[in-house]
UniProtKB/TrEMBL annotation:
The chain crosses the membrane at residues 6-26, 62-81, 93-111, 117-136, 152-173, 193-212. It comes from Polynucleobacter campilacus. This is histidine kinase. The keyword ATP-binding applies. It comes from the Bacteria. Coiled coil: none annotated. One of its GO terms (molecular function) is phosphorelay sensor kinase activity. Its EC number is 2.7.13.3. It is an enzyme of class 2 (transferase). InterPro entries: HATPase_C_sf, HATPase_dom, His_kinase_dom, HisK_dim/P_dom, HisK_dim/P_sf, Sig_transdc_His_kin-like_C. It catalyses: ATP + protein L-histidine = ADP + protein N-phospho-L-histidine.
Length: 472
């Protein structure tokens, strides 16, 4: 049959172009990896070379140089693909490959015009055999070949290596020196060539199967991960439902604990005044003036306790906060009157930098409670520190439409581990205490449209800053 070789080449070319078309999913899945690009390049070069082999005898035999250059390039890029499975290929490798292919094309064209067919086949067989050995070495270097397709690829490449040597040997026996070109090759060597080219197609099929296998594994893993995420989301929903169900009980418990904590100060002060009053009565040395002073203190403590209860109840029951315009300096003075005895007993100095004209629209008693809580925190921090010159600084300034009030001490400050949850409910840095004071401060200030945060004091210590909208 006159055009048997051309028909075989054309059939093989169509098979390879079909494989290339079927591999387009690699490009549509997203950004192709280096390995995928190298394999697609090798497959394209092989399909192109087979197409040129099918056309060269009818168009021009000079196309054989281009066909064989593409054929050799396919071996090199397939080898680079195997190498890329073990690690990335340097970017400048393409330049070296193109330079080598240019040298090959010049040499092959010279042999086509001046040499023998067996010399050309020998050159291609040497390059092909070298690439097959390289491919086998790279595939064997893979630490653990879990893919059945890559295992199959090892066998096909090994068979290609054997057939390459067998073809060159058969061509020499068939009288390669007298064979003019590819299309007049002897029966034995040409038969081996077709088997070799068929096995090369199986190599490409094996790699295509490897990509499909890889995608299937990744899809299975994605489904598994998705199942885990769905399970976690369901667990989250169950937890949220449980928290919502327990919210009423938790709120009641938090309210009770808050009341117990916040009432400790006025009730403690009342208890001291009552004990003092009883002692004076038993001795019969109480004067009307002293009695009135003690009773006034008891009344003030009782009023403060009642206000605290009302304030705490408002946390869980939305109601009017009874805001009014007040001077911030007056609120600070009232708190200082309460804590002054303790300041003196612990030898703590007070530094005041307060603009007396600052006006805020708030519930006065609630803001007094915030200032008192922050002052008590500073007192306790200084009492537990080794600082000799103990000092609390209170500053109040206006910044735009906000009034900024800061209370600083020169104690030990707050350790880094406690800073993120300072204002959380039931979080405390104290050995005794229930972690409700700062949480309540934040709640009150937020209700007033303000904010509160912690800063480290320059030189050591803690600074609590809260801002409130200005009334003026």
């Amino acid at each position: 049959m006159k055009y048997a070789n051309e028909i075989f080449f054309l059939v093989f070319a169509l098979i390879l172009w079909g494989l290339l078309y079927g591999s387009r999913f690699i490009l549509t899945l997203g950004k192709a990896s280096q390995s995928e690009k190298l394999w697609l390049t090798a497959l394209t070069l092989t399909a192109t070379s087979f197409t040129l082999f099918a056309l060269a005898s009818t168009i021009s035999l000079s196309l054989l140089t281009l066909a064989n250059t593409c054929f050799v390039a396919n071996f090199i890029y397939f080898g680079l693909f195997c190498r890329s499975l073990n690690g990335p290929i340097p970017k400048n490798m393409n330049i070296l490959v193109l330079a080598g292919l240019l040298v090959f094309a010049v040499l092959f064209e010279y042999l086509r015009q001046n040499g023998f067919f067996i010399q050309r086949v020998g050159l291609i067989s040497l390059i092909a055999a070298s690439c097959f050995v390289w491919e086998l070495r790279e595939l064997r270097r893979l630490k653990e070949i879990r893919s059945n397709q890559l295992r199959f690829l090892i066998y096909t490449v090994a068979i290609e290596l054997v057939l390459t040597i067998a073809r060159l040997t058969a061509l020499y026996i068939d009288g390669g020196l007298s064979t003019p070109n590819l299309y007049q090759e002897g029966v034995i060597s040409s038969s081996i060539r077709w088997v070799w080219l068929g096995i090369s197609i199986l190599s490409y099929v094996a790699v295509l199967g490897y990509w499909l296998e890889k995608i299937s594994i990744e899809k299975a893993q994605a489904i598994q991960e998705s199942s885990k995420i769905i399970a976690l989301l369901k667990e989250k929903e169950r937890l949220i439902y449980g928290l919502l169900k327990a919210n009423k009980t938790s709120a009641t418990g938090a309210l009770s604990a808050s009341i117990a904590h916040e009432l400790n100060q006025p009730l403690g002060a009342s208890n001291l005044n009552i004990q003092f009053l009883k002692m004076k009565l038993e001795k019969g040395v109480i004067s009307p003036e002293l009695g009135k002073e003690i009773l006034d203190s008891l009344e003030a403590d009782n009023h403060r306790a009642a206000t605290i209860v009302k304030s705490l109840r408002s946390i869980f029951i939305e109601s009017d906060s009874s805001a009014e315009e007040v001077q911030l300096g007056n609120l600070i003075s009232k708190v200082l009157d309460i804590v002054m005895p303790e300041l003196k007993s612990k030898n703590i100095q007070i530094q005041l930098r307060v603009d007396e004209q600052l006006m805020v629209k708030v519930n006065a008693t609630e803001i007094e409670q915030v200032i008192l809580n922050l002052m008590n925190n500073a007192l306790q921090a200084l009492a537990n520190s080794g600082t000799l010159q103990r000092r609390i600084t209170i500053e109040a300034t206006k910044s735009g439409q906000l009034i900024r009030l800061s209370i600083s001490d020169n104690g030990d400050g707050v350790s880094a581990e406690f800073k993120p949850q300072l204002f959380e409910l039931l979080s405390t840095t104290k050995q005794s205490g229930m972690g409700l004071g700062l949480w309540l401060c934040k709640h009150i200030v937020t209700r007033c449209g303000g904010s509160i945060h912690y800063e480290d004091t320059v030189g050591g210590g803690a600074t609590f800053v809260f801002e409130l909208p200005s009334a003026a």
